[in-house]
Amino acid sequence: MDAGDRKEDGAERHVVEDFLALIEKSQQLFAGLRDLPPHGYRLWQPYFEKTFAVYTKLWKFQQEHRAVLERKDRYGMKRYEIGEIASKIGQLYYHYYLRTSETRFLQESFMFYHAIRKRGYFKEVMAAGSQVLVIKKLRYYARFVVVGLLLGMRDLVQELLLELTTEVDKYGEIFEPTDAGEWLLVLQEVAAFLQSDQPLQIISKGATADSKLNLTPLVMKIRPSLTPVEATASSVRLSDAVLVGHASHQVKFSELTIDMFRFLQILEFESPKASFQPSSPTSMHSGGSVSNAAQSSSLRQNPRKYLLYRPGFATFMSSLANTFRDLEDGQAMLVYMSADGSSLIDNEEKNSALSTSFSGGVQLLGMEDGGDKIEDSAISAMRVLHPGDLIPFTRRPLVMVIDSDTAFKFKNMPGPFGIAPICIMSPSEAPPSAKDQSFNGSLMTMFLWSPLAGFASVTGLSQLTNSAAIEVQQVIAEKLKEFTCFLKTVDGLHKQLASILDCEILAQLLGRFCLFHSLLAHHMHYSNPDFLPMISPELPAGVLDGVLLQGIVGTIAALLDVAGQFKLSP
After folding, report:
1. CA dihedral in degrees (390, 394, 398, 400; nearest 10)?
2. Which residue spans within 100-221 are E strands per DSSP?
3. Is residue 510 over pLDDT 70?
4. Is omega for the bond preceding 537 within 30 degrees of 0, making it cis?
5. pLDDT per residue over 219-233, tens digit each?
6. What is the DSSP secondary-structure string of 351-403?
7. pTM of this prediction?
8. How confident is the model over 167-181, as a mean pLDDT?
9. Do 394 and 386 form a contact (C-beta atoms < 8 A)?
10. What is the rounded CA–CA span in Å between residue 119 and residue 105?
11. CA dihedral (219, 220, 226, 229) positive or negative
Protein backbone atom coordinates (compact mmCIF):
# COMPACT_ATOMS: atom_id res chain seq x y z
CA MET A 1 0.00 0.00 0.00
CA ASP A 2 1.58 3.27 -1.12
CA ALA A 3 1.41 6.55 0.78
CA GLY A 4 -1.66 7.76 -1.13
CA ASP A 5 -3.59 4.59 -0.36
CA ARG A 6 -2.58 4.75 3.30
CA LYS A 7 -3.77 8.35 3.48
CA GLU A 8 -7.10 7.45 1.86
CA ASP A 9 -7.46 4.43 4.14
CA GLY A 10 -6.83 6.60 7.20
CA ALA A 11 -9.36 9.21 6.03
CA GLU A 12 -12.02 6.55 5.52
CA ARG A 13 -11.38 5.03 8.94
CA HIS A 14 -11.67 8.52 10.38
CA VAL A 15 -15.06 8.93 8.67
CA VAL A 16 -16.33 5.74 10.32
CA GLU A 17 -14.99 6.79 13.71
CA ASP A 18 -16.65 10.21 13.44
CA PHE A 19 -19.92 8.59 12.37
CA LEU A 20 -19.93 6.19 15.31
CA ALA A 21 -19.14 9.04 17.68
CA LEU A 22 -22.09 11.05 16.31
CA ILE A 23 -24.37 8.01 16.64
CA GLU A 24 -23.37 7.54 20.27
CA LYS A 25 -23.78 11.24 21.09
CA SER A 26 -27.18 11.43 19.39
CA GLN A 27 -28.43 8.33 21.23
CA GLN A 28 -27.32 9.74 24.58
CA LEU A 29 -29.11 13.03 23.95
CA PHE A 30 -32.24 11.33 22.65
CA ALA A 31 -32.41 9.07 25.70
CA GLY A 32 -32.16 12.18 27.89
CA LEU A 33 -35.39 13.57 26.41
CA ARG A 34 -37.34 11.11 28.58
CA ASP A 35 -36.06 12.80 31.72
CA LEU A 36 -37.10 16.31 30.70
CA PRO A 37 -40.10 17.75 32.54
CA PRO A 38 -43.18 18.19 30.34
CA HIS A 39 -43.50 21.78 31.56
CA GLY A 40 -41.18 24.72 32.10
CA TYR A 41 -39.89 25.61 28.63
CA ARG A 42 -36.83 27.34 30.11
CA LEU A 43 -35.71 23.89 31.29
CA TRP A 44 -36.35 21.77 28.20
CA GLN A 45 -35.81 24.16 25.28
CA PRO A 46 -31.98 24.40 25.53
CA TYR A 47 -31.75 20.59 25.65
CA PHE A 48 -33.89 20.25 22.53
CA GLU A 49 -31.71 22.78 20.72
CA LYS A 50 -28.58 20.79 21.59
CA THR A 51 -30.22 17.53 20.43
CA PHE A 52 -31.38 19.08 17.16
CA ALA A 53 -27.85 20.37 16.51
CA VAL A 54 -26.33 16.89 16.88
CA TYR A 55 -28.97 15.19 14.71
CA THR A 56 -28.56 17.91 12.09
CA LYS A 57 -24.85 17.14 11.95
CA LEU A 58 -25.46 13.36 11.92
CA TRP A 59 -28.01 13.53 9.10
CA LYS A 60 -25.77 15.72 6.95
CA PHE A 61 -22.71 13.57 7.74
CA GLN A 62 -24.30 10.28 6.63
CA GLN A 63 -25.47 11.97 3.42
CA GLU A 64 -22.03 13.32 2.54
CA HIS A 65 -20.17 10.10 3.40
CA ARG A 66 -22.78 7.52 2.33
CA ALA A 67 -20.44 5.83 -0.17
CA VAL A 68 -17.76 5.13 2.46
CA LEU A 69 -20.22 4.12 5.19
CA GLU A 70 -22.03 1.62 2.93
CA ARG A 71 -18.83 -0.23 1.99
CA LYS A 72 -18.73 -3.62 3.73
CA ASP A 73 -15.00 -3.36 4.38
CA ARG A 74 -15.57 -0.09 6.24
CA TYR A 75 -18.87 -0.02 8.10
CA GLY A 76 -21.46 -1.71 5.92
CA MET A 77 -24.31 0.67 6.76
CA LYS A 78 -27.72 -0.85 6.05
CA ARG A 79 -30.72 1.07 4.75
CA TYR A 80 -32.65 0.38 7.94
CA GLU A 81 -29.93 2.24 9.86
CA ILE A 82 -30.68 5.35 7.79
CA GLY A 83 -34.33 4.70 8.59
CA GLU A 84 -33.57 4.56 12.31
CA ILE A 85 -31.88 7.98 12.17
CA ALA A 86 -34.74 9.47 10.14
CA SER A 87 -37.29 7.95 12.51
CA LYS A 88 -35.54 9.49 15.52
CA ILE A 89 -35.54 12.89 13.81
CA GLY A 90 -39.25 12.48 13.08
CA GLN A 91 -39.84 11.73 16.76
CA LEU A 92 -37.76 14.72 17.74
CA TYR A 93 -39.84 17.08 15.60
CA TYR A 94 -43.09 15.54 16.86
CA HIS A 95 -42.18 15.97 20.51
CA TYR A 96 -41.03 19.51 19.82
CA TYR A 97 -44.38 20.19 18.18
CA LEU A 98 -46.18 18.90 21.28
CA ARG A 99 -44.20 21.29 23.47
CA THR A 100 -44.34 24.36 21.21
CA SER A 101 -47.70 23.77 19.46
CA GLU A 102 -46.19 25.03 16.19
CA THR A 103 -47.55 22.91 13.34
CA ARG A 104 -44.53 23.55 11.12
CA PHE A 105 -42.61 21.11 13.34
CA LEU A 106 -45.39 18.54 12.96
CA GLN A 107 -45.05 18.93 9.19
CA GLU A 108 -41.29 18.40 9.45
CA SER A 109 -41.96 15.21 11.41
CA PHE A 110 -44.27 14.07 8.64
CA MET A 111 -41.59 14.75 6.02
CA PHE A 112 -39.15 12.33 7.66
CA TYR A 113 -41.74 9.62 8.29
CA HIS A 114 -42.98 9.99 4.71
CA ALA A 115 -39.41 9.70 3.37
CA ILE A 116 -38.85 6.46 5.31
CA ARG A 117 -41.94 4.93 3.73
CA LYS A 118 -41.31 6.28 0.22
CA ARG A 119 -37.68 5.17 0.13
CA GLY A 120 -38.32 1.82 1.80
CA TYR A 121 -35.71 2.25 4.53
CA PHE A 122 -37.38 -0.42 6.68
CA LYS A 123 -38.38 -2.69 3.77
CA GLU A 124 -35.83 -5.46 4.47
CA VAL A 125 -36.22 -5.49 8.26
CA MET A 126 -38.25 -8.73 8.36
CA ALA A 127 -35.63 -10.49 6.22
CA ALA A 128 -32.92 -9.47 8.70
CA GLY A 129 -34.55 -11.76 11.27
CA SER A 130 -34.12 -9.31 14.15
CA GLN A 131 -37.09 -8.97 16.49
CA VAL A 132 -35.66 -5.72 17.87
CA LEU A 133 -35.56 -4.17 14.38
CA VAL A 134 -39.11 -5.32 13.62
CA ILE A 135 -40.37 -3.68 16.82
CA LYS A 136 -38.66 -0.43 15.76
CA LYS A 137 -40.50 -0.66 12.44
CA LEU A 138 -43.86 -1.22 14.15
CA ARG A 139 -43.26 1.73 16.47
CA TYR A 140 -42.40 3.88 13.47
CA TYR A 141 -45.75 3.01 11.92
CA ALA A 142 -47.61 3.80 15.16
CA ARG A 143 -45.95 7.21 15.41
CA PHE A 144 -46.58 7.96 11.74
CA VAL A 145 -50.28 7.21 12.35
CA VAL A 146 -50.45 9.82 15.14
CA VAL A 147 -48.79 12.47 12.96
CA GLY A 148 -51.13 11.62 10.08
CA LEU A 149 -54.17 11.95 12.36
CA LEU A 150 -53.03 15.35 13.64
CA LEU A 151 -52.52 16.58 10.08
CA GLY A 152 -55.97 15.34 9.08
CA MET A 153 -54.62 12.84 6.52
CA ARG A 154 -57.32 10.22 6.99
CA ASP A 155 -56.71 8.42 3.68
CA LEU A 156 -53.02 8.08 4.47
CA VAL A 157 -53.80 6.80 7.98
CA GLN A 158 -56.11 4.15 6.47
CA GLU A 159 -53.23 3.01 4.24
CA LEU A 160 -50.81 2.98 7.16
CA LEU A 161 -53.29 0.95 9.22
CA LEU A 162 -53.46 -1.70 6.48
CA GLU A 163 -49.66 -1.83 6.23
CA LEU A 164 -49.28 -1.98 10.01
CA THR A 165 -51.84 -4.82 10.17
CA THR A 166 -49.79 -6.80 7.66
CA GLU A 167 -46.57 -6.15 9.57
CA VAL A 168 -48.14 -7.15 12.91
CA ASP A 169 -49.42 -10.40 11.36
CA LYS A 170 -45.94 -11.21 10.00
CA TYR A 171 -44.38 -10.30 13.34
CA GLY A 172 -46.67 -12.74 15.14
CA GLU A 173 -46.10 -15.56 12.66
CA ILE A 174 -42.31 -15.29 12.55
CA PHE A 175 -41.40 -14.52 16.17
CA GLU A 176 -44.45 -15.68 18.20
CA PRO A 177 -43.76 -12.75 20.57
CA THR A 178 -45.22 -12.21 24.02
CA ASP A 179 -46.33 -8.69 23.08
CA ALA A 180 -48.44 -9.78 20.10
CA GLY A 181 -51.64 -9.00 22.01
CA GLU A 182 -50.42 -5.44 22.69
CA TRP A 183 -49.91 -4.78 18.98
CA LEU A 184 -53.35 -6.18 18.16
CA LEU A 185 -54.74 -3.71 20.71
CA VAL A 186 -52.89 -0.88 18.92
CA LEU A 187 -54.61 -1.87 15.67
CA GLN A 188 -58.00 -1.87 17.38
CA GLU A 189 -57.36 1.55 18.94
CA VAL A 190 -56.37 3.10 15.60
CA ALA A 191 -59.46 1.68 13.87
CA ALA A 192 -61.75 2.94 16.66
CA PHE A 193 -60.06 6.35 16.67
CA LEU A 194 -60.54 6.73 12.92
CA GLN A 195 -64.21 5.90 13.25
CA SER A 196 -64.73 8.38 16.12
CA ASP A 197 -62.72 11.11 14.40
CA GLN A 198 -65.32 11.46 11.64
CA PRO A 199 -68.68 12.10 13.36
CA LEU A 200 -70.05 13.60 10.12
CA GLN A 201 -69.28 12.05 6.76
CA ILE A 202 -68.33 14.56 4.07
CA ILE A 203 -68.90 13.24 0.54
CA SER A 204 -68.44 14.62 -2.94
CA LYS A 205 -71.73 15.38 -4.68
CA GLY A 206 -72.66 12.53 -6.98
CA ALA A 207 -69.91 10.28 -5.59
CA THR A 208 -69.97 7.45 -3.13
CA ALA A 209 -69.12 7.78 0.53
CA ASP A 210 -65.76 6.19 -0.25
CA SER A 211 -64.72 8.99 -2.60
CA LYS A 212 -61.15 10.08 -1.87
CA LEU A 213 -61.30 13.57 -3.31
CA ASN A 214 -59.98 16.58 -1.43
CA LEU A 215 -62.80 16.99 1.07
CA THR A 216 -63.02 19.83 3.57
CA PRO A 217 -61.89 18.83 7.08
CA LEU A 218 -64.38 19.03 9.92
CA VAL A 219 -62.01 20.78 12.30
CA MET A 220 -62.37 24.58 12.24
CA LYS A 221 -59.03 26.06 13.13
CA ILE A 222 -58.79 29.81 13.59
CA ARG A 223 -57.40 31.87 10.74
CA PRO A 224 -55.01 34.46 12.15
CA SER A 225 -55.90 38.06 11.41
CA LEU A 226 -53.99 39.71 8.58
CA THR A 227 -53.57 42.76 10.79
CA PRO A 228 -52.47 42.41 14.43
CA VAL A 229 -55.20 42.86 17.02
CA GLU A 230 -54.61 46.02 19.01
CA ALA A 231 -54.51 44.95 22.65
CA THR A 232 -55.45 47.23 25.53
CA ALA A 233 -53.75 47.50 28.88
CA SER A 234 -56.32 45.15 30.40
CA SER A 235 -56.12 42.55 27.62
CA VAL A 236 -54.70 39.10 28.24
CA ARG A 237 -53.17 36.62 25.80
CA LEU A 238 -53.32 32.86 26.13
CA SER A 239 -49.78 31.66 26.75
CA ASP A 240 -50.04 28.09 28.06
CA ALA A 241 -52.65 25.36 28.26
CA VAL A 242 -52.81 22.18 30.33
CA LEU A 243 -55.02 19.54 28.71
CA VAL A 244 -56.21 16.56 30.76
CA GLY A 245 -57.87 13.45 29.35
CA HIS A 246 -59.39 11.45 32.19
CA ALA A 247 -62.77 10.26 30.91
CA SER A 248 -63.18 6.52 31.38
CA HIS A 249 -64.16 4.30 28.46
CA GLN A 250 -63.37 6.96 25.85
CA VAL A 251 -61.63 6.02 22.62
CA LYS A 252 -57.93 6.83 22.69
CA PHE A 253 -54.68 6.16 20.89
CA SER A 254 -51.15 6.66 22.11
CA GLU A 255 -52.21 8.31 25.39
CA LEU A 256 -54.37 10.77 23.46
CA THR A 257 -58.12 10.57 24.03
CA ILE A 258 -60.47 11.80 21.31
CA ASP A 259 -61.41 14.80 23.48
CA MET A 260 -57.75 15.74 23.99
CA PHE A 261 -57.08 15.25 20.28
CA ARG A 262 -59.90 17.63 19.38
CA PHE A 263 -59.21 20.28 21.98
CA LEU A 264 -55.50 20.59 21.22
CA GLN A 265 -56.48 21.50 17.63
CA ILE A 266 -58.83 24.22 18.93
CA LEU A 267 -55.75 25.97 20.33
CA GLU A 268 -53.91 26.06 16.99
CA PHE A 269 -54.19 28.65 14.25
CA GLU A 270 -54.82 27.39 10.76
CA SER A 271 -51.46 26.76 9.13
CA PRO A 272 -50.69 28.55 5.85
CA LYS A 273 -49.10 25.26 4.79
CA ALA A 274 -52.17 23.17 5.59
CA SER A 275 -52.16 21.81 2.04
CA PHE A 276 -48.42 21.16 1.83
CA GLN A 277 -47.22 18.39 -0.44
CA PRO A 278 -44.84 15.69 0.82
CA SER A 279 -41.29 16.16 -0.38
CA SER A 280 -37.78 15.60 0.91
CA PRO A 281 -37.11 16.44 4.55
CA THR A 282 -36.43 20.17 4.57
CA SER A 283 -34.57 21.53 7.57
CA MET A 284 -32.37 18.49 8.19
CA HIS A 285 -32.02 17.77 4.48
CA SER A 286 -30.38 21.12 3.94
CA GLY A 287 -28.26 20.87 7.03
CA GLY A 288 -30.30 23.37 9.01
CA SER A 289 -32.06 22.99 12.34
CA VAL A 290 -34.87 24.53 14.31
CA SER A 291 -32.63 26.08 16.92
CA ASN A 292 -32.98 29.60 15.58
CA ALA A 293 -36.71 29.23 15.16
CA ALA A 294 -37.03 27.88 18.69
CA GLN A 295 -35.17 30.82 20.09
CA SER A 296 -37.44 33.33 18.33
CA SER A 297 -40.46 33.89 20.52
CA SER A 298 -41.95 36.15 17.86
CA LEU A 299 -42.58 33.08 15.70
CA ARG A 300 -44.76 31.43 18.35
CA GLN A 301 -48.43 32.06 17.57
CA ASN A 302 -50.00 29.10 19.28
CA PRO A 303 -50.02 28.68 23.07
CA ARG A 304 -47.81 26.00 24.54
CA LYS A 305 -49.77 22.85 25.38
CA TYR A 306 -49.09 20.20 28.01
CA LEU A 307 -50.98 16.95 27.48
CA LEU A 308 -51.72 14.81 30.52
CA TYR A 309 -53.35 11.42 30.01
CA ARG A 310 -55.00 10.13 33.20
CA PRO A 311 -52.65 11.94 35.61
CA GLY A 312 -52.86 11.53 39.36
CA PHE A 313 -53.58 14.55 41.53
CA ALA A 314 -49.90 15.17 42.37
CA THR A 315 -48.83 14.99 38.71
CA PHE A 316 -51.57 17.37 37.65
CA MET A 317 -50.85 19.93 40.36
CA SER A 318 -47.12 19.80 39.65
CA SER A 319 -47.73 20.50 35.95
CA LEU A 320 -50.08 23.33 36.80
CA ALA A 321 -47.64 24.92 39.25
CA ASN A 322 -44.73 24.79 36.81
CA THR A 323 -46.86 26.19 33.99
CA PHE A 324 -48.09 28.96 36.28
CA ARG A 325 -44.50 29.83 37.17
CA ASP A 326 -43.69 30.62 33.51
CA LEU A 327 -46.57 33.07 33.08
CA GLU A 328 -45.76 36.74 32.64
CA ASP A 329 -47.89 39.85 33.04
CA GLY A 330 -50.78 39.91 30.60
CA GLN A 331 -50.64 36.17 29.99
CA ALA A 332 -53.38 33.66 30.77
CA MET A 333 -53.32 29.93 31.46
CA LEU A 334 -56.03 27.58 30.21
CA VAL A 335 -56.97 24.32 31.93
CA TYR A 336 -59.02 21.80 29.96
CA MET A 337 -60.50 18.83 31.80
CA SER A 338 -62.29 15.93 30.14
CA ALA A 339 -63.02 13.69 33.09
CA ASP A 340 -65.56 11.70 35.06
CA GLY A 341 -67.41 13.68 37.68
CA SER A 342 -67.48 13.25 41.44
CA SER A 343 -70.00 14.78 43.87
CA LEU A 344 -69.03 14.66 47.53
CA ILE A 345 -71.39 15.86 50.26
CA ASP A 346 -70.06 16.82 53.64
CA ASN A 347 -73.00 17.06 56.03
CA GLU A 348 -70.99 19.19 58.39
CA GLU A 349 -70.59 22.80 57.29
CA LYS A 350 -72.22 21.92 53.97
CA ASN A 351 -73.26 25.54 53.42
CA SER A 352 -69.89 27.10 54.16
CA ALA A 353 -67.70 28.58 51.43
CA LEU A 354 -64.96 26.08 52.25
CA SER A 355 -67.36 23.15 51.92
CA THR A 356 -68.66 24.49 48.59
CA SER A 357 -65.13 24.73 47.19
CA PHE A 358 -64.32 21.16 48.25
CA SER A 359 -67.60 19.34 47.72
CA GLY A 360 -66.59 17.49 44.57
CA GLY A 361 -65.33 18.12 41.09
CA VAL A 362 -63.67 15.74 38.64
CA GLN A 363 -61.85 12.50 39.30
CA LEU A 364 -58.08 12.41 39.03
CA LEU A 365 -57.29 8.77 39.59
CA GLY A 366 -53.81 8.32 38.17
CA MET A 367 -52.22 5.23 36.71
CA GLU A 368 -50.45 4.70 40.00
CA ASP A 369 -53.90 4.28 41.60
CA GLY A 370 -54.96 1.56 39.21
CA GLY A 371 -56.70 3.83 36.69
CA ASP A 372 -60.25 2.60 37.30
CA LYS A 373 -63.22 4.80 38.04
CA ILE A 374 -63.83 5.15 41.79
CA GLU A 375 -66.92 5.43 43.92
CA ASP A 376 -67.41 8.46 46.15
CA SER A 377 -66.01 7.99 49.63
CA ALA A 378 -63.74 9.70 52.15
CA ILE A 379 -60.75 8.06 50.46
CA SER A 380 -61.80 9.05 46.95
CA ALA A 381 -62.18 12.68 48.03
CA MET A 382 -58.40 12.92 48.02
CA ARG A 383 -58.33 11.75 44.40
CA VAL A 384 -60.71 14.41 43.17
CA LEU A 385 -59.86 17.82 41.76
CA HIS A 386 -62.07 20.26 43.65
CA PRO A 387 -62.65 23.88 42.59
CA GLY A 388 -60.85 24.97 45.74
CA ASP A 389 -57.67 23.21 44.58
CA LEU A 390 -57.37 25.73 41.73
CA ILE A 391 -57.84 28.91 43.79
CA PRO A 392 -54.06 29.54 44.25
CA PHE A 393 -53.71 29.78 40.46
CA THR A 394 -56.25 32.60 40.21
CA ARG A 395 -53.44 35.02 40.99
CA ARG A 396 -53.06 35.11 37.20
CA PRO A 397 -55.80 35.09 34.54
CA LEU A 398 -57.20 31.56 34.46
CA VAL A 399 -59.56 30.11 31.86
CA MET A 400 -61.08 26.69 32.51
CA VAL A 401 -63.02 24.40 30.20
CA ILE A 402 -64.56 21.58 32.24
CA ASP A 403 -66.20 18.79 30.26
CA SER A 404 -67.74 16.53 32.87
CA ASP A 405 -71.13 15.59 34.29
CA THR A 406 -70.23 17.54 37.44
CA ALA A 407 -68.75 20.56 35.68
CA PHE A 408 -71.34 22.73 37.47
CA LYS A 409 -69.25 22.32 40.65
CA PHE A 410 -66.84 24.90 39.20
CA LYS A 411 -69.50 27.56 38.72
CA ASN A 412 -68.83 30.83 40.56
CA MET A 413 -65.43 29.63 41.75
CA PRO A 414 -64.02 32.36 44.00
CA GLY A 415 -61.27 34.69 42.80
CA PRO A 416 -59.92 36.13 46.06
CA PHE A 417 -57.02 37.91 44.33
CA GLY A 418 -59.19 40.23 42.26
CA ILE A 419 -59.02 38.15 39.06
CA ALA A 420 -62.20 36.15 38.57
CA PRO A 421 -61.51 32.80 36.86
CA ILE A 422 -63.43 32.14 33.65
CA CYS A 423 -65.02 28.72 33.47
CA ILE A 424 -66.87 27.12 30.55
CA MET A 425 -68.86 24.10 31.78
CA SER A 426 -70.52 21.29 29.87
CA PRO A 427 -74.14 20.25 30.50
CA SER A 428 -74.64 17.94 33.48
CA GLU A 429 -77.21 15.79 31.67
CA ALA A 430 -78.41 14.89 28.19
CA PRO A 431 -81.99 14.38 27.01
CA PRO A 432 -83.29 10.78 26.91
CA SER A 433 -83.59 11.05 23.13
CA ALA A 434 -79.85 11.66 22.75
CA LYS A 435 -77.73 8.58 22.11
CA ASP A 436 -74.88 7.90 24.50
CA GLN A 437 -71.84 8.91 22.44
CA SER A 438 -69.41 9.25 25.36
CA PHE A 439 -67.11 6.59 23.87
CA ASN A 440 -66.69 8.79 20.78
CA GLY A 441 -66.06 11.97 22.76
CA SER A 442 -68.11 14.64 24.47
CA LEU A 443 -70.64 16.80 22.62
CA MET A 444 -69.34 20.12 23.95
CA THR A 445 -65.72 19.43 23.02
CA MET A 446 -66.85 18.21 19.61
CA PHE A 447 -68.76 21.45 19.03
CA LEU A 448 -65.87 23.65 20.15
CA TRP A 449 -63.64 21.67 17.76
CA SER A 450 -66.13 21.72 14.89
CA PRO A 451 -69.43 23.60 15.22
CA LEU A 452 -70.58 21.84 12.05
CA ALA A 453 -69.98 18.41 13.58
CA GLY A 454 -71.75 19.54 16.76
CA PHE A 455 -74.80 20.72 14.80
CA ALA A 456 -74.87 17.40 12.95
CA SER A 457 -74.63 15.37 16.16
CA VAL A 458 -77.51 17.24 17.83
CA THR A 459 -79.77 17.09 14.76
CA GLY A 460 -78.92 13.52 13.74
CA LEU A 461 -77.28 14.48 10.45
CA SER A 462 -74.95 11.69 9.32
CA GLN A 463 -73.52 12.97 6.03
CA LEU A 464 -73.19 16.17 4.02
CA THR A 465 -71.90 17.06 0.59
CA ASN A 466 -68.53 18.73 0.41
CA SER A 467 -69.94 21.91 -1.16
CA ALA A 468 -72.58 22.21 1.58
CA ALA A 469 -69.96 21.66 4.31
CA ILE A 470 -67.76 24.41 2.87
CA GLU A 471 -70.71 26.82 2.69
CA VAL A 472 -71.85 26.11 6.26
CA GLN A 473 -68.35 26.45 7.67
CA GLN A 474 -67.85 29.76 5.89
CA VAL A 475 -71.13 31.04 7.33
CA ILE A 476 -70.17 29.87 10.83
CA ALA A 477 -66.75 31.55 10.60
CA GLU A 478 -68.23 34.85 9.37
CA LYS A 479 -71.07 34.89 11.90
CA LEU A 480 -68.80 34.04 14.82
CA LYS A 481 -66.44 36.84 13.83
CA GLU A 482 -69.38 39.26 13.82
CA PHE A 483 -70.57 37.93 17.17
CA THR A 484 -67.20 38.34 18.92
CA CYS A 485 -67.06 41.92 17.62
CA PHE A 486 -70.56 42.42 19.04
CA LEU A 487 -69.42 41.17 22.45
CA LYS A 488 -66.98 44.06 22.67
CA THR A 489 -69.93 46.47 22.57
CA VAL A 490 -72.06 44.72 25.21
CA ASP A 491 -72.79 46.84 28.29
CA GLY A 492 -72.18 45.15 31.60
CA LEU A 493 -69.82 42.49 30.24
CA HIS A 494 -67.65 41.23 33.10
CA LYS A 495 -64.16 42.72 32.93
CA GLN A 496 -62.49 39.29 32.81
CA LEU A 497 -64.61 38.22 29.84
CA ALA A 498 -63.87 41.56 28.18
CA SER A 499 -60.14 41.07 28.77
CA ILE A 500 -59.96 37.91 26.60
CA LEU A 501 -61.68 39.36 23.52
CA ASP A 502 -58.42 40.69 22.08
CA CYS A 503 -56.97 37.17 22.16
CA GLU A 504 -58.17 35.50 18.97
CA ILE A 505 -58.12 31.97 20.36
CA LEU A 506 -59.95 32.81 23.60
CA ALA A 507 -62.44 35.09 21.80
CA GLN A 508 -63.21 32.29 19.35
CA LEU A 509 -63.59 29.83 22.22
CA LEU A 510 -66.08 32.15 23.94
CA GLY A 511 -67.99 32.71 20.69
CA ARG A 512 -68.27 28.98 20.00
CA PHE A 513 -69.50 28.35 23.55
CA CYS A 514 -72.25 30.96 23.07
CA LEU A 515 -73.28 29.41 19.77
CA PHE A 516 -73.31 25.94 21.38
CA HIS A 517 -75.56 27.23 24.17
CA SER A 518 -77.94 28.81 21.67
CA LEU A 519 -78.04 25.66 19.54
CA LEU A 520 -79.14 23.52 22.50
CA ALA A 521 -81.43 26.16 24.05
CA HIS A 522 -83.48 26.42 20.85
CA HIS A 523 -83.53 22.71 19.99
CA MET A 524 -86.81 20.97 20.79
CA HIS A 525 -85.15 18.22 22.85
CA TYR A 526 -82.86 20.40 25.02
CA SER A 527 -85.27 22.74 26.83
CA ASN A 528 -84.31 21.45 30.30
CA PRO A 529 -81.70 23.80 31.91
CA ASP A 530 -79.66 20.74 32.95
CA PHE A 531 -79.14 20.03 29.26
CA LEU A 532 -77.42 23.40 28.68
CA PRO A 533 -73.79 24.42 29.13
CA MET A 534 -72.84 27.21 31.54
CA ILE A 535 -70.25 29.93 31.87
CA SER A 536 -68.91 31.81 34.84
CA PRO A 537 -68.83 34.81 35.18
CA GLU A 538 -72.25 34.94 33.57
CA LEU A 539 -72.88 36.91 30.41
CA PRO A 540 -75.26 39.89 30.60
CA ALA A 541 -78.94 39.22 29.98
CA GLY A 542 -79.87 39.27 26.32
CA VAL A 543 -76.59 37.80 25.02
CA LEU A 544 -77.14 34.03 25.14
CA ASP A 545 -80.87 34.35 24.44
CA GLY A 546 -80.54 37.29 22.06
CA VAL A 547 -81.70 37.58 18.48
CA LEU A 548 -78.14 37.63 17.09
CA LEU A 549 -77.29 34.09 18.23
CA GLN A 550 -80.79 32.87 17.44
CA GLY A 551 -80.39 34.23 13.92
CA ILE A 552 -77.10 32.36 13.46
CA VAL A 553 -78.68 29.09 14.63
CA GLY A 554 -81.61 29.67 12.27
CA THR A 555 -79.34 30.36 9.30
CA ILE A 556 -77.25 27.23 9.87
CA ALA A 557 -80.34 25.08 10.53
CA ALA A 558 -81.85 26.26 7.24
CA LEU A 559 -78.64 25.46 5.33
CA LEU A 560 -78.61 21.96 6.85
CA ASP A 561 -82.35 21.53 6.22
CA VAL A 562 -83.08 20.81 9.90
CA ALA A 563 -84.96 24.00 10.83
CA GLY A 564 -87.99 21.94 11.87
CA GLN A 565 -86.09 20.71 14.95
CA PHE A 566 -85.74 24.21 16.41
CA LYS A 567 -88.04 26.57 18.27
CA LEU A 568 -87.05 29.94 16.85
CA SER A 569 -88.82 33.28 17.19
CA PRO A 570 -90.12 34.69 13.91
Report:
1. 30
2. 201-203
3. yes
4. yes
5. 888 877 766 666 666
6. TSHHHHHTSEEEE---GGGTS-----STTGGGGEE-GGGGGGGGGS-EEEEEE
7. 0.89
8. 92
9. no
10. 21
11. negative
